[in-house]
Amino acid sequence: MTMLEKILAKKQIEVEELVNKGMTFDSAKQPVPFKSKIAASTHVQIISEIKRASPSKGDIKTKINHVQQAKQYEANGAAAISVLTDTTFFKGSIQDLQAVSDAVQIPVLCKDFIIHPIQIDRAKAAGASIILLIVAALSKQQLYELYHYATEKELEVICEVHQLEELEDLLALDPAIIGINNRNLKTFEVDLRTTTHLAARIKNRNTLIISESGLQTRADAILARDAGAEVLLIGETLMRSDNLSKTFNHLKIAKQRSAKHAR
Ligand SMILES: O=C(O)c1ccccc1NCC(=O)[C@H](O)[C@H](O)COP(=O)(O)O
C-alpha cells in the first residue's frame, strides 16, 4: 500500500464517522477572495503552510503555536495560510484551521484529503475560503462533483496534480486554479521540474498555477515562476525558519517574467 492509499483508507473511516454521527455544519464566515487578489500583485505570492509533521519528514515542529505562526505569516505578506487538518499523518486538526481563520484576515486553505462533501461543509464552517482536491485521490466523477459542490458554496478550489495523465483528466474541467505538486505522494520524491513540465501543458491563460512542495531557495522560486507559477505553496521551509522575515524576503521575487509569457 502506498502512503496515499493509507491516508485515503483512514479518511474513508473518518468520513463514515462524520456521516454516521449525523454531523451538520453551519458556516458563519463569508469566504475571503483569493485568486482575484493574485492578479493585482506585482510579486509571486506565497501560500504559507502550518505543517507540524508529515509522512515524508516525520516531526517538523509539533509544538508550534499555530495562531502565532499564522499571524507572522500574514504580517510577512503571505497571500493565504494553508492549514494541514489531518491528525493521523500530519498532527493537525480542524480546530487548528478554525483558530487560524479567527485570527487572520487573509484566506485560509483547508489542506486535507477530501473525498466527501461533508469534509467541504466542515472546512467551510471552520472558516476555510479555499479547499484542496487531489486528482490522484479521486475518480473523475468524484473530482467533478466535489469541485462543483465546493464552488457552489463559494469556496475556491485548488485542483492538485503531479502527473501528466492527471493534468489531462483535469483540463476537461477547466478549473480556475491548478496546484502542481512537485512531490510524488507515493514515493515522496521531490522534483521541481514537475512544475516546469506540467505548467507548459496548461494553455488557458486565466488558470492560476501554484507550485507546491520542496521550495526552499530563491533559485527554486525563480524556477517555479519562470515555469508559469504565480503562487508558491511552502510548508517545511517556513516551519523550520528561525527568522521568518528574512526567509520571506529571500523568497520574494517579482513577477518579472510574466507567468502568462512563460507558457
Ligand atoms: O509532505 C508530505 O510528506 C506529504 C506526504 C503525503 C501526502 C502529502 C504530503 N504533503 C502535503 C503537501 O502538499 C505539502 O505539505 C505542501 O505542498 C508543502 O510542501 P513543503 O513545502 O515541501 O513542506
UniProtKB/TrEMBL annotation:
Q: Which residues form the Indole-3-glycerol phosphate synthase domain?
A: 4-249
The pathway to which it is assigned is: Amino-acid biosynthesis; L-tryptophan biosynthesis; L-tryptophan from chorismate: step 4/5
Quote the CDD domains the UniProt record gives: IGPS
Q: Which UniProt keywords apply?
A: Amino-acid biosynthesis, Aromatic amino acid biosynthesis, Decarboxylase, Lyase, Tryptophan biosynthesis
Q: What is its EC number?
A: 4.1.1.48
Tell me the protein family, please.
Belongs to the TrpC family.
Q: What is this protein called?
A: Indole-3-glycerol phosphate synthase
